[in-house]
Amino acid sequence: MWVSPEDVLLAGALWITERANPYFILQKRKGHGDGGGGLAGLLVGTLDVVLDSSARMAPYRILYQTPDSLVYWIIAHGTSRKEITEHWEWLEHNLLQTLSIFENENDITTFVKGKVQGIIAEYNKNHDVKEDDDTDKFKEASAKFRKLFGMPEEEKLVNYYSCSYWKGKVPRQGWLYLSINHLCFYSYLLGKEAKLVVRWADITQLEKSATLLLPDVIKVSTRTNEHVFSVFLNINETFKLAEQLANIAMRQLLDNKGFEQDRSLPKLKKKSPKKVSALKRDLDARAKSERYRALFRLPKDEKLDGHTDCTLWTPFNKMHILGQMFVSTNYICFTSKEETLCSLIIPLREVTIVEKADSSNVLPSPLSISTKNRMTFLFANLKDRDFLVQRISDFLQQTTSKIYLERELNSSLNSSDDEVYSQHGSLLSSSPQHSLGSESERTFNLNDSSVPTATQALMTMYRRRSPEEFNPKLAKEFLKEQAWKNHFTEYGQGVCMYRTEKTKELVLKGIPEGMRGELWLLFSGAINEMATHPGYYEDLVEKSMGKYNLATEEIERDLHRSLPEHPAFQNEMGIAALRRVLTAYAFRNPNIGYCQAMNIVTSVLLLYAKEEEAFWLLVALCERMLPDYYNTRVVGALVDQGVFEELAREYVPQLYDCMQDLGVISTISLSWFLTLFLSVMPFESAVVVVDCFFYDGIKVIFQLALSVLHANIHQLLGCKDDGEAMTVLGRYLDSVTNKDSTLPPIPHLHSLLTDNGEPHPEVDIFKLVRSSYEKFGSIRADVIEQMRFKQRLRVIQTIEDTTKRNVVRTIVTETAFSIDELEELYVLFKAEHLTSCYWGGSSNPTERHDPSLPYLEQYRIDVEQFKDLFNLLFPWANGAHSDPLAVRFFRLLDQNGDALINFREFINGLGVLCHGDLTEKLKLLYKMHVLPEFTHEQEEPDSAFEATHQFIELCKTLYSMFSEDVAEQELYHATATVTSLLLEMGEVGKLFSSSGRRDLNLDGRSEPSMCARDVSDPKISQEPQDLGDVFGPAGLENKSSPCEDGKGDEASELPPMQDIKLEDSSPKDTGTSSAMLISDDETKDDTSMSSYSVLSAGSHELDEKLQCEDIADDTVLVRSDSRGSRLPHSTSIDKDWAITFEQFLASVLTEQALVHYFEKPVEVAARITNAKNVRKVGRPLLSTSDYEISLSG
Predict the structure, then answer these.
(1) What's the CA gap between 208 and 1166, in Å, rounded?
(2) Residue whose C-alpha is closest to residue 1010's, from 990, 1025, 983, 981
(3) Which 3 state secondary structure label does DSSP give 351?
(4) Where is there biased composition of kind Basic and acidic residues (predicted)?
(5) Does the structure show a pLDDT above 60 at 99?
(6) In angstroms, what CA-CA distances link 1141 with 46, 930, 1151?
(7) What 3-state class would DSSP assign to 6?
């Protein structure tokens, strides 16, 4: 290909000149091609790989040189001699003559450069080459990656790194390529090539470790192998990227969401590192945004735009605090360098003024931001203040236009009801204290039914105390409220509050009952989603009410089990509110739908927050704070269970082994984590845990769980079994009390179920929480995330293994394959599904993989993927005819006609070919060629043509099957004999039926159609479907083949073809013809085939529906595509040329060579091994030197 001219200093180094003229030189790389160039060639090849030289990819090049200059310019390079020769000849024919005219050297150089750039521009224009951000060096690496590993265009390289791969005890220096779906390694040392390809989806462990010999090592484990890489220039960057890509693969296995590149990234700056690809920048930006969202609890679609160092003036302690400012599409956030000192979140919807203040020595480049609730924030020491202000004002403009749009929408929707609009409008502008506290708000009934709707927290309605009652507990509660009010005065109230160590102190002392809802909303970040989605919850409730599915059934079942001991849920009002919130969420997020434990958590949210607020708190919990906890397989909780085990090993090592032996950790962690201790602790104590959780996240739950174990360390060490350990922990948790609670005591369900042993002395919840912070407060959120990643790999791969075992267990009794073979085949089947998810198939991957389906249905493949597996595994795949044969086979296996087959259908088909007897195999082959084609739409149908066409296809299939067999010639002769024999039989059959019809046509009747089964003989109409024996249970036994024409002249009055059942044609209509056709059938047994019946499917619509069960034993090789209209007499010639299966079977049995071929056993294990070793990606790998391909799984 032509390249943009670059100067070359040493033209002769490591290159051999093959052709030359006064202006151009064609060179070949030393060591390339025949002979290899001896030792020098091997050294050059090794150097090219180690130094990432482009000569490895393009061993030919053309240089331009003016006669008197020493500077050369590379203008083209090529991967093959043919490609470079074409370029050379073009230069000789088109440029040499022109160049001799020029007098000045500089003019010649300018002309040649301009010409080459013009050719490149023309090529890009004609081939629609898109401009992208990737550098030429990176594009070259991508091309090299695709060529080396046979990857298609769709497989995008993210980055590549130089490193050593330990193969045995020998390190191989080479390049590690990380693409979206694969980790690949390539090395070439002195003629020896090493290749490795591993799917991210197959990785079970990815860890960075250090040993004395190897200080920096990345270890990649799959189910079967362990690969070790070392000597990285930047191990941290490599490991982070590998971790991120493995995470994307796990996410894909979990919920089938593939990777989609973000096209909205800012352009590269000139100073950016040369090797970074657009994809790598995309992934880096994602990782930063993820950390940013987690740090400030922001909505999950928020993207970080950038961050900068600065100082923030904090009025409460009159200081300038050093920290970082983060700016994203809808928020400005700040966090101090010292983590606990101060953090701040300013939503742009609250901002009124952003202005640059005057610089001074004390306050260099300050920036002032004012908000609607009259707070002003002063930032200083900003490096690029003008640019920052411009970005913020751009985002502000977008935000105000969004708010304006929403207001317009809401006012038009609710113009008839001003009250509703004002309620909506208040969400946009007000601070939380206005929208949360007023109990005089109008009752807004969400679903026009008679059930009252909760517009205030349920707790306020069920506070059972008289106004004059006053006791020390209430006094303490009053003091708490005062403390929070003072805090709001000093630090601000609402979203823009300064969050400091003081805030945390107040949370640890317990949030007052009346402020819980407001502060939960604030600390969880749910307030932001609620403010930006006015009216969303009401719409959801309206849409979801009255709809029924599996989730709503489960919700109904669990409604009365949610805090049944609390008076708020002992009447219809509380129950109805709970129903609405859970159903609305199930409709918002069908991936989660409803999971047990959500009811308990939601009922507590409803006690302290209004219905809409409780909904957004649930959204924050399920989608951000407890990711993947509440899906069908509680993956998130299992992941955190693994994290808890790791933390237990680190923080309570003396207890860890004992707990592992008893198997207690797995039992306790699920119930503790899924319900945030609400189901195992007295209610008034558990809500304190929820307070801390909303403020500090999941680390609170881990700290508390470790504290509970630590407090019971001696009793647990003395336990003999898990039951005893559970009793110890149960008693302890039952005794956790909240002495400050003003609530009437609520009997705790868990304590009612424990035995009557000595109760545990009371434990104060505030002391327990504080001690958990003192002992285990060093656990950091980012460390937890790191541990979660490691556990997620393990948990998801364990789930995948369980699915595999269940599938194999389900079908092992139905097939002759062994368990090991089935497991290997399942891995190949799943790999084929994943490949199509990566690089696109003809159908949507979400249709083919649905984790909520039964195990057998989870992975399905379409016809394109089946073709690949057919060519690898099926013994009949040979020659050019194997693709059409695969399509025929696929349609036969696809019993429900959805153009997808599951693993059971796949195994049934393969089982017949590998373990079936001669008759089963031949019946399968025959039926493949009887099924109608997909795409025939003929104006003038020709039944005889169809029959002969299908017969020819059958013969072609037979010939291609034998193309690489040992007894090829013998088999060809046998096939020729069988073919001629069948042709003669077809002709005889035609004579019989045509004479029958001649008699019939003498009566002046219209020509009848002969169906596959004729009801005039009950014996035939009741023939068993013995294809069902081959393919498992048949789904469509009772469907009869429709006749092609109606009765006599009444055909025009009959309904459409597919509605005509076989019973409509009485024996008298078919007259002598039918009698003649079935005359000898009475003598046959039930499983035989009638000799001369004809299958003709009447309409094209039926072609799609005709499944393998429709074709009974009396099927023959002929079809008419008449689309329901009666045939004119002119087309009735040769209409009855037909071959039955019986004739086909009998003909094959006459040839011993064919019988031997179809009866010989198939080596399944060898085919599976071969399929695993063949890397079916794009094109096969071609390499003369030795190479290793490691396919994990």
Answers:
(1) 37
(2) 990
(3) strand
(4) 996-1006
(5) yes
(6) 62, 10, 16
(7) strand
What is the rounded distance in angstroms from the CA atom of residue 32 to the CA atom of residue 60? Answer: 9
Centroid of chain to Cα 1003: 67
Q: Are 478 and 740 in contact (CB under 8 A)?
A: no
AA letter at 604: V
User: Could you read off the pLDDT of 877-932 as tens digits, one per residue?
Assistant: 776 777 888 888 888 888 777 788 888 888 888 888 888 888 888 888 888 877 65
1137, 944 in Cβ contact below 8 A?
yes
Helix (H) / strand (E) element for 325: namely strand 319-328
The pLDDT of residue 959: 79
CA distance 1045 to 1033: 31
Q: Where are the alpha helices (DSSP H) in 95-128?
A: 96-99, 105-126
Query: Whose structure tokens read 């008289």?
Result: 466
The whole-number pLDDT of residue 42 equals 56
Pick the closest to residue 589 from 152, 814, 255 (CA basis).
255
**Cα dihedral: 1169, 1172, 1173, 1176 (round 10):** 140
Average per-residue pLDDT in the chain? Answer: 74
Distance CA 671, CA 673 (A): 6
Residues β-bridged to residue 355: 368
Token pair 């327990």 in the structure block, residue = 768
Pair 919, 1158: CB distance under 8 Å: no
Top-confidence residue, 496 or 97: 496
From CA 550, how far away is CA 967, in angstroms rounded? 59
Q: Which residue shows structure tokens 């919920």?
A: 255
Q: What are phi and psi of 63, to 5 degrees?
A: -110, 150
pLDDT class of 130 with cuts at 50, 70, 90: low
Burial of 625 (0-12, 13-18, 19+ CB in 10 A): buried
Find, among 1111, 1163, 1107, 1152, the residue nearest to 918 by Cα.
1152
The neighbouring-strand residues paired with 1116 are 1140
Long-range contacts of 443-452 (CB under 8 A, 24+ apart): 444/420, 444/538, 446/538, 446/541, 446/542, 446/580, 446/611, 447/541, 447/542, 447/545, 447/580, 451/572, 451/573, 451/576, 452/573, 452/576
Q: Which of 362, 356, 361, 290 is nearest to 326 (CA)?
A: 290
**Phi, then psi, of 738 in degrees rounded to 5:** -120, 100
**Residues paired with residue 764 on neighbouring β-strands, in sequence order:** 737
β-bridge pairing 351-356 and 367-371: antiparallel
CA separation, residue 176 to residues 110, 156, 179, 231, 431 (Å): 40, 14, 10, 11, 53
Q: What is the mean pLDDT of residues 1018-1042?
A: 37
State whether residue 955 is helix, strand or coil: helix
Distance CA(612)–CA(454), nearest Å, equals 9
Give the Cα separation of 252 and 915 in Å (integer).
35
Helix axes 598-608, 683-696, angle to 10 degrees: 90
Dihedral angle computed from the Cα positions of residues 175, 176, 182 and 186, in that order, rounded to the nearest 10 degrees: 30
Of 174-188, 491-505, 552-566, 1064-1078, the poorest mean pLDDT is in 1064-1078
Give the DSSP H or E segment for 98. helix 96-99
Per-residue pLDDT at 304 exceeds 60: yes
**Amino acid at the residue 782:** D
Write down the pLDDT at residue 769.
94
pTM of model > 0.70: yes
Residue 1027: per-residue pLDDT: 37
Alpha helices, H only, 589-634: 598-608, 611-620
The 10s digit of each residue's pLDDT in 374-421 is: 899 999 999 888 999 999 999 998 887 777 666 666 555 444 333 333
- Count of H-run helices and E-run strands, the chain: 45, 24
Helices (H), 208-327: 235-255, 278-296
Calculated CA dihedral for residues 339, 343, 348, 352, nearest 10 degrees: -140
**Structure-block tokens of residue 390:** 């411009």
